[in-house]
Structure to design on (578 residues):
């Protein structure tokens, strides 16, 4: 192992194949190869392209991707429940926090990824392009790692702006891109373990952070990007992006919300809408005098309740968050009746619905998420509501008037609006 | 984007048991992802999805990175060491924030029926950010250069 020192600081480690070699020797191919090797040697010595910085940035990016991935899996499990991972209804704001973190870490990952790719970029071109079979595999897996990561972050950033310039269904494409990237990341970490061990065994910052200080010649070439410059870019842009977008879910930062797709206090009744009544084709439901909530029991028995009958049931008020998969969330004061009291009123006693899910269906004619299911634990809780009011007013048509589901720790897409039927399954 | 090869007089060290575990688990996960795309072909549109994965890598390597390097090469001619560094920082930060938020700023996904969707003047806010960050970075850099010149005098 050769260690290059600059003013007593190790700035990079280079393998035997990375020796610069004599310039101009041999034919055009070997001269080009020598030029490439010299470029790689320069790059590895440079603070901005050192393996030390690449490893440290990689760890930060890996941590951000891991948080993003785990919160994404949690969101997926909310929408596609599995029996082996029951999601508890408390804390009520857990989904708000996890999905807020998902979007915030995803946005912060954009500058981290670009910084990491910039740091390692001089190492891409080399001749011969691969050394052996394992190296060929390592180089090949960079395609899903880089392409998948860029696609993952791009689709996420476009989705929160409701922009879909691709021909696949976003949740499915984003989901499989996430698994592709996590797989490629595991391979990359496995292949880079010796580098990680070497860098982190060396302890504190071997290259030094100063402008120009990290240059191999003691800072003679101060026109280059420094190690400090890359760190300042990554930290500065990730920090500013978070500062100016996280207010869409984190109330203390709300006044700074400058670049977010939503602001939680903008919308009818003081909070945003994800699908309007016009878009769902339900605009007449709020004023429909013939509205009936149809309730179907486990044996198929059907009954119905008018709005007047619903209003006669015990009124319940709760402060519950509405949290969207796109990352915004807001606390709303809801008033209505409990789902269990409605089922009771419809003649379905607790004994008949124990261990049974309830399907809540909407009148919406267009779009996805026309119904959702409520598990038995949630359905029996006194904070699982069919809301008639929000923030002290009758429910706005865009928020699901005359009746919508609102329950703790659920994604907004499962808080079914314009409810017209309940079915005990 | 290459894996930097670990140095050793006897050539690069071979992966140990932990590394092989990660490599095998990661490869299996990638294969599972690709299989998943084809199993859910109706919704995932595999051809389009794979095209976007490949295209994303190419756009980064052949468009974005060369643009960054070209701007970086031009900044080399800016006089003043701190001014260069701060200008580079300001341009990079403003560019990446613009890149990350351009779908919001362009409002291509705005709904004609939903004023709560994309309600903020993000394009204007980005313009303000550019007007503050880049000249601000230049001023800070110039002040640092002037202070350095003063101390060296």
């Amino acid at each position: 192992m050769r260690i290059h020192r600059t003013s007593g600081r190790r700035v990079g480690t280079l393998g035997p194949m990375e020796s610069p070699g004599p310039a101009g020797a041999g034919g055009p191919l070997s001269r080009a190869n020598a030029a490439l090797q010299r470029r790689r040697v320069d790059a590895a010595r440079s603070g901005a392209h050192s393996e030390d910085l690449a490893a440290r940035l990689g760890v930060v990016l890996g941590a951000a991707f891991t948080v993003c991935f785990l919160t994404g899996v949690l969101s997926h499990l909310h929408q596609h429940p599995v029996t082996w991972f029951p999601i508890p209804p408390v804390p009520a704001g857990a989904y708000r926090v996890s999905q807020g973190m998902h979007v915030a870490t995803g946005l912060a990952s954009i500058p981290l990824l670009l910084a990491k790719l910039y740091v390692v970029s001089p190492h891409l071109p080399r001749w011969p392009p691969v050394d052996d079979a394992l190296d060929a595999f390592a180089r090949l897996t960079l395609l899903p790692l880089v392409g998948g990561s860029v696609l993952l972050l791009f689709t996420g950033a476009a989705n929160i702006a409701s922009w879909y310039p691709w021909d696949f269904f976003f949740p499915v494409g984003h989901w499989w891109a996430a698994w592709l990237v996590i797989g490629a990341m595991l391979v990359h970490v496995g292949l880079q373990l010796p580098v990680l061990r070497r860098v982190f065994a060396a302890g504190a910052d071997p290259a030094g952070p100063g402008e120009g200080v990290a240059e191999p010649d003691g800072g003679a070439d101060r026109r280059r990007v420094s190690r400090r410059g890359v760190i300042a870019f990554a930290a500065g842009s990730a920090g500013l992006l978070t500062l100016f977008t996280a207010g869409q879910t984190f109330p203390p930062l709300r006044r700074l919300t400058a670049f977010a797709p939503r602001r939680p206090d903008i919308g009818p009744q003081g909070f945003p809408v994800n699908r309007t009544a016009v878009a769902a084709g339900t605009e007449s439901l709020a004023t429909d005098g013939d509205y009936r909530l149809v309730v179907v029991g486990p044996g198929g028995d059907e009954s119905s309740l008018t709005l007047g009958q619903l209003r006669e049931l015990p009124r319940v008020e709760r402060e519950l968050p509405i949290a969207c998969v796109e990352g915004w969330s807001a606390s709303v004061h809801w008033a209505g009746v409990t789902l269990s009291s409605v089922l009771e009123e419809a003649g379905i006693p607790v004994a008949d619905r124990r261990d049974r899910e309830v399907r809540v269906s909407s009148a919406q004619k267009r779009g996805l998420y026309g119904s959702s299911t409520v598990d038995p634990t949630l359905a029996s809780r006194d904070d699982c509501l069919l809301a008639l009011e929000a923030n002290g007013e009758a429910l706005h048509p865009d928020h699901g008037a005359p009746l919508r589901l609102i329950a703790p720790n659920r994604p907004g897409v499962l808080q079914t609006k314009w409810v017209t039927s309940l079915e005990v399954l | 984007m290459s894996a930097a090869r670990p140095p050793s007089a006897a050539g690069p060290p071979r992966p140990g048991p932990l590394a092989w575990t990660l490599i095998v688990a990661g490869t299996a996960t990638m294969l599972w992802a690709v299989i998943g795309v084809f199993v859910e072909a109706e919704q995932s549109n595999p051809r389009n999805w794979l095209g976007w994965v490949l295209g994303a890598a190419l756009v980064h390597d052949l468009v974005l990175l060369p643009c960054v390097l070209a701007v970086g090469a031009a900044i080399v001619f800016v006089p003043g060491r701190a001014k260069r560094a701060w200008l580079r920082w300001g341009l990079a930060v403003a560019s990446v924030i613009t890149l990350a938020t351009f779908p919001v700023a362009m409002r291509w996904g705005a709904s004609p029926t939903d004023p709560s969707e994309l309600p903020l003047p993000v394009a204007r806010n980005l313009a303000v950010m550019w007007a503050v960050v880049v000249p601000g970075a230049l001023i800070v850099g110039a002040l640092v250069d002037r202070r350095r010149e003063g101390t060296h005098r």
Notes: Chain A is about 40% helix and 15% strand. Residues 2-256 of chain A form one domain. Chain A touches chain B through 107 residues (CB under 8 Å). Chain A has two domains: 2-256, 270-424.
